[in-house]
Amino acid sequence: MPLFATIVDSIQNNFPALVQYKYLFLLIATTIEGFNTIILAGFLASLGSVAIIPAVIVCVIGDFLNGWMWYLIGYFGGAKPIDKWGRKDPKSRKIIETVERYFHRYSGRAIVFTKLTWSLTIATMIMAGSFKYNFRKFSYYNFIGGLGWVTITFTVGYVFGKGYRAVTLVNNIGYIALFLASAIILVYVFKVIFKSKFIQSLTTTEHLHDLGDKFRDGIDKFLS
Fold it and tell me: 28-61: per-residue pLDDT in tens?
C-alpha cells in the first residue's frame, strides 16, 4: 500500500471526525490561516483525498471570511493594529504610508492586488475597515482578489501533488514533506517578488504623480 494511503487510513482510524468533516476543517483553517491550508488542499485534491471543486469553493469562502475578519478588526479597532505592527520601523512605516495613499486613490485595486502580496494583505484589509470603506464594495473586491489568490495557490499545491504521485519511490514520508515544502516555498517566493514589484510600482507612481503636480504648479505660475 502506498505510504500516503497508509497515512490517510491511519488518520481515518484514529481521527474519524477529521476525515468526516474534512471540508469543515479546511474552511476553519483557511479562515484562520489561508496560505499553507490552501496549498495543502490542492495537494490533497491531486491525491484524491478531497474533491477539487468543493475544496476550491471552501478555500475561497474561507479566504473571503478571513478578509471580513481583518476588515472588522479595522472597523472597530481603527488604525491601532497597523500603528502597532506596521509602523514599528522607518522602512515599514514608509511602505504602509505608500499603500495608504494608494488605497485612497485606487481602493478596489489595492484590495485585489495586495491579496497577492506577503504581509500587505492584512494591513490593507484593516486599513479598509479603519477608513470605514463601503462594506459591499469591500466584499466584492475581497472576493475577486481572494478568488485569484486561491486559484494560484491551490494550483501550485495541486501540481506539486501530481509531481509527488509521479515519483515512484514514495516509500518515505520525506517525499511528502519535500513536495509540500517546495510548493510552500514557491508560493512564498512568488508573494515576496510580487510584493517587491508592487511596492516599486507604487513608488514610481508616487514620483510621477509628484512630478505632474510640480509641472502643473510651474505652468500655473508661468501663466499667472
Answer: 999 988 778 888 898 888 878 889 999 999 999 9
- Cβ(126)–Cβ(73) below 8 Å: yes
Decide if 114 contacts 143 (C-beta within 8 A).
Answer: no
Task: Answer whether 193's CB lies under 8 Å from 120's CB.
Answer: no
Kindly calculate the radius of gyration of the chain based on its CA atoms and give it in whole angstroms. Answer: 21
Unique residue bearing C-alpha cell 477608513:
131
Q: How far is CA 4 from CA 16, 21, 49, 179, in A?
A: 17, 19, 10, 13
What size, in residues, is the chain? 224
Phi and psi dihedrals of 36, rounded to 5?
-70, -35
Report d(CA 193, CA 196) in Å as an integer.
Answer: 5
Boundaries of every domain in the chain: 3-223
Helix (H, G, I), strand (E, B) or coil at 78: coil
